[in-house]
Amino acid sequence: MINKQVVARGLLGLARGMSSMKWPAFGYARARSLQDVWRLQSEHGDGARLIAGGQTLLATLAFRLSEPTVLIDITQVPELRGVSVEAGTLRIGALTRHAELGRDELIARHAPLLREAVPYIAHPAIRNRGTIGGSLAYADPAAELPACVVALGATLVLASAAGERRVRAEDFFTGLLETALRGGELITAVEVPIATAATRSTIAEVARRSGDYAMAGLAVHLSLGSNGQVAAPRLVYFGVGNGPVLAKAAGAALAGRRLGAESIAAVQAALAGDLDPPSDLHGPPEMKRHLARVLTGRALSRFLPATEVAA
Ligand SMILES: Cc1cc2nc3c(=O)[nH]c(=O)nc-3n(C[C@H](O)[C@H](O)[C@H](O)COP(=O)(O)OP(=O)(O)OC[C@H]3O[C@@H](n4cnc5c(N)ncnc54)[C@H](O)[C@@H]3O)c2cc1C
């Protein structure tokens, strides 16, 4: 059994250049299809672990926080690839790398929040290998993509030898580094409702250094009417809880109101009912709450007409 707090903080340490131990010995098998994945999983049992970009998993091996007997490489499984639009939904294959999220035209048009999030994720070398499926499955509470998919109202497509099922992103993250994934299941894709002309979204975060995990962050998605009235706001905070936090009280304080200084202040006040951040390496709960309020003001002000921002 691994200590999850230690894993999460260990990775932060790694990110700051701490030295690491040697990896344990393990086998390696490359799957070429989902059928291959099911076959390899049944051959190797509980000791098997999927590897996608390897950007998190290899760090946990280096810390001996995970000791699989065999890694099943899923990077050559075609069913996990590709970005497409089908029946009003953007489908993003689980193997889509962070860097691809940042340059794909369909994502830029239909889910611009994901493109905006990419520069905040680690560094180019990590973004060139890390995948959206790996980031969601690992469920780091300070990671950007889990918060974005919750803000977007996305659905995760999960598959196992027993079949396929769909889980709303907001139900997928169940605790610190915990998800709704069952044994033998993997994420095959993320389905995102496509943006309309009224959609507004943005991401804001505070990190100690560019590329570090966020001390606190916020992904916002809402609809803005021509009269400035807000509908369906989804404010999702990260780095302030055990997973992405969909702020329901803050959303209720904004829904149906005209976006402006007054409604933004109401959202900031309502946050007290949504956030109960734990202390962590970055500081105490009150500091996190303060950062969340500041980020709320910054993010929502981006949707105001220039005249109101100046005022
Ligand atoms: C120094 C450093 C800094 C980082 N900074 C950030 C940051 O600022 N923000 C951020 O969000 N991330 C950050 N990361 C993490 C990075 O984004 C990882 O790429 C990502 O979290 C995992 O993706 P991966 O494809 O590499 O997954 P892997 O490392 O291959 O796998 C991670 C876990 O997910 C499982 N998995 C992989 N794919 C699937 C799937 N399709 N279905 C089910 N389970 C699956 C694996 O079995 C494993 O348990 C950082 C990583 C490092 C090393």
Written description of the protein model:
The protein is an alpha+beta fold. It folds into 3 domains: 4-73, Uridine Diphospho-n-acetylenolpyruvylglucosamine Reductase, domain 2 (2-Layer Sandwich), CATH 3.30.43.10; 79-193, Uridine Diphospho-n-acetylenolpyruvylglucosamine Reductase, domain 3, CATH 3.30.465.10; 199-310, CO dehydrogenase flavoprotein, C-terminal domain (Enolase-like, domain 1, 2-Layer Sandwich), CATH 3.30.390. It contains 14 helices and 14 strands. The strands form 4 sheets. The chain has a 5-stranded antiparallel β-sheet. Strands 11-12-13-14 form a 4-stranded antiparallel β-sheet, with helices on both faces. Strands 1-3-2 form a 3-stranded parallel β-sheet, covered by helices on one side. α11 packs antiparallel against α12 (261-270). Mean pLDDT is 92; it is low at 15-19. Bound molecules: flavin-adenine dinucleotide. The site of flavin-adenine dinucleotide (FAD) has 31 residues, from α1, β2, α3, α8 and α9. Residues 14-15, 49-57, 59, 94, 121-122, 126, 129-131, 133-135, 137-138, 143-145, 181, 186-187, 213 line the site of flavin-adenine dinucleotide.
